[in-house]
Amino acid sequence: MNENNVLTYGGCTGPDAEYIKLISSDGHEIYIKQKYTIVSKTIKEMLLTRRILNRGDENAARFEDITSHLLVKVCQYFTFKAYYTSRHFQTVPRFKIDEAMMGDLLHAANILRC
């Protein structure tokens, strides 16, 4: 493959980007498909505002009150929810959450409005 044939997979720049970059309070960056984040009203409004303003910036959301270990768990939940709501299942397993994180995850859910 020569250097002119660079493969890209959706990216996270512009209104039609497939991914969004979530940045935790401790600076970690997590890339996740935008369609998985629709669970969050906060993220949905951020993306909508960016589209209305017709900005071609990178689709990124910084969360100053959510640490990386919580943001990873939130992204796992987004993916879990998207998987189990997009298919027909007789039973849906319970999403596993460590009891020690429950309070912090509730705080994150309030910020993200999920």
Automatic annotation (TrEMBL):
One record GO biological process: ubiquitin-dependent protein catabolic process
Annotated localization: Nucleus
Chief place of localization: nucleus
UniProt keyword annotation of Glycosyltransferase present: no
GO cellular component, one term: nucleus
Domain of life assignment: Eukaryota
Record carries keyword Cell inner membrane: no
InterPro entries: ELC1, SKP1-like, SKP1/BTB/POZ_sf, Skp1_comp_POZ
TM spans (from-to): none
Keyword terms of this UniProt record: Nucleus
Domain SKP1 component POZ as annotated: residue spans: 19-80
Pfam family, one: Skp1_POZ
Family: Belongs to the SKP1 family.
Protein name per its UniProtKB record: Elongin-C
